[in-house]
Amino acid sequence: MYTKESIEKLKEKINIYDVLDDILELEDEPSYECPFCESEHFLVDQLKDKCYCVDCKFHGDGIAMIMNVQKISFNEAIEILAKYYDFKLEKVAKKERKSVEEILKSVFYSALPSLQDKSKAVREKGLEELEILAIEYEKIKVFKEISDTMLFRRYEALRSI
Predict the structure, then answer these.
(1) Which of 9, 44, 121, 124 sits 20 to 30 Å CA-CA off 76?
(2) pTM of the prediction?
(3) Confidence label for 122 from pLDDT (cuts 50, 70 and 90)
(4) Is the same domain home to 84 and 111?
């Protein structure tokens, strides 16, 4: 694992054209051939250091491009880019690392209030739906009684003929 600060500093150094130059034959064109779907609608925005394919909807920065073309992890991609830019990534100190359990607990406890609010809203909505269903059931029951009565009267009328 690497520190967020060193990853952010590396991202500042990354130029999308440097990354794409090894993958695509870059020229001074508005769009290129997408390395994923091979359409001619692969756009590169040098100001935002992002790329986007209109057809397959791939989008991302230099790190995402390396990850997807070479089918590697985020850490492997930033290591490749750090080597390319001769950049030293700082590793996270062991005491700074959190266990997976600690991370999951913090995510759960931070999401808990909104989950409780949502569950209350869902419960209230569910009660409303149950009330509507009860009313509809009563309507169906009354309709069935009326139709049964009408059928019985018809049956009696036909029987008396």
Answers:
(1) 44
(2) 0.54
(3) low
(4) no
